Amino acid sequence: MFIHEYNNWTDFVWDDEVINPLQITAMHRLGYLAGRMAAIGFDSQLAATVETVTNDVVASSEIEGVRLDTDEVRSSVARKFGVSLPKTKDPTHYVDGVVEMMLDATHNQREPLTEQRLFGWHRALFPNALLMTVGVYRTEDMSVVSGSFGRERIHYRAPSPDRVSDEMDRFIGWMNMPENPPTILKSAIAHLWFVSIHPFDDGNGRIARAISDMVLAALDGEGMHFYSLSRQILKDKNHYYKVLERTQRGNSDITEWLVWYFEAIIAAIEDSDAMLSMVLRKAAFWNTHSQAVITERQRMVLNRYLDGYDAKLTAKNWEKLAGVSKDTALRDIDALVKQGILVPTPGRVRDIPYSINYTVRPADLSPFADIKVESEGKHTVITARYKGSMLLRDRVSATDARRLADGEITPHDLAYKHFAYLLD
What we know:
There is one protein chain. This protein has helices at residues 16-38, 42-63, 70-81, 93-107, 115-125, 161-175, 184-197, 204-220, 229-235, 237-248, 255-288, 296-306, 315-322, 326-338, 398-405, 411-418, and strands spanning 143-146, 153-157, 342-344, 354-356, 368-376, 379-386, 390-396. By secondary structure, the chain is mainly alpha-helical. The chain is built from 16 helices and seven strands. 54% of the residues lie in helices and 9% in strands. The longest helix has 34 residues, at 255-288. It has two domains: 3-275, Fic-like fold; 282-422, no CATH class. α2 crosses α9 and α9 (229-235) packs across α11 (255-288).
C-alpha cells in the first residue's frame, strides 16, 4: 500500500527520541548562522542572499533534470534585490519567472498559501507548455515510473484526481493554521505531504521545495535566506528519492524521512556557514589592506584564494592562475610579502607555501583560547573561545588541514584566518 491509501494518512507519527536531538542540533546551527550574519553589514548580507537564492533556484531545477544558466539566474536575482553585478547576463523571461516564484515563496513567507498562489507558481514553471495542463490541478492518474517499456517499475502512485482538490484543501488549511507556526519540522512534513498528493501534472518537486523554503524563510526573518536546502538535496539526490519512496510505501510513521530531512538541513546550514566564512574573511582582508598598493593582477589572484580556491598559495600556482612567467609570479608575491599581505612558511627555501594575512594581529596576548582542530564527519572543523567566552566554530579547507598536519601553519594561524572578522 502507498501512504495515502491508509485511513487518516496525514496523522503522521515519528520517534521523538530519534528526532528531537536532530531538531536541537539544527536549531543550534541555525542560531549560530543567524548570529554570524548579524555581525556583517547589510551589503554583505545581500551578497550572501543573492548567492544562496541563485544556488537554490539552479539546484531545485537541476534535481528535476532542468539545467538553468547560473549567470542568468544570478542576474535575475540580483536585479530583484537591487544589487549591481559586474558582467551581468540578461535572463530570459522563463528564468525571471522561476526566480519570481522562489522569491514569492521566501520573501512573502507570511502571506497565506492559497490555491491561486500555487497555480501562479505552476504557470511560472511552465509558461509555454502545450501538452500539459498548467495552472490547475491534474485531471489524470499520476504515477512515478522508471525502467524501459515492459519492464517499468512503479515507485509511487499518487491519489486519484478526484481526491486531489479535497486533499489540497486539507493541506492548505494545515499550512495556514495560526496554531501551527513555522518550524523545521513543519517544513519537513509540508514537503512530504505535498509531493505525496502530487497535485500537478509536472513540477511537483520544485513547488514542494519552494513550500519547504517558504516555511524555513519564516524562521530567518527580514526576508534574508542564507542556506540552500535544494543544493543539499541535489548532492544527495539518490538517497533523497530512496527515502521518499520508502516513506511513501509505508504507513504514517515518517521517522526515516524526518531523519534524512533534518540531516540535510544541518548539512545545508554547514555549507552556508562555510560560504559566509569566505564572505567575512574576504571583507576583513580588504578592510585590513585597504591602503596597500596592489595591482589588478595581484588582486585577481588574491580574490581567487579569498573566494575559496582550495590549493596552496605557491609561486607555481600563482603562475598558473595569473598566466604569467615564474619570475613575474615571484615578483608579484615578493611585493605582497614586503607589505605584510603574504607570509612565507618559515624554514622553507623551495616551493614555499605562503599564508594570507587577513588581519593585524594584536601585539599583546592572543584573544583566542582552547583552539581545537578536529575531524567531524567528512570535514575538518576549528573551534576556539574568543576573549574567554564566545565559542567560535568554522570549517577548515582540505588544503589548510594538510598544511596544519605538515607543520606549515599553526592552530593560532587558522584562528586568525577564520575569525579575523572579530578583530578591529
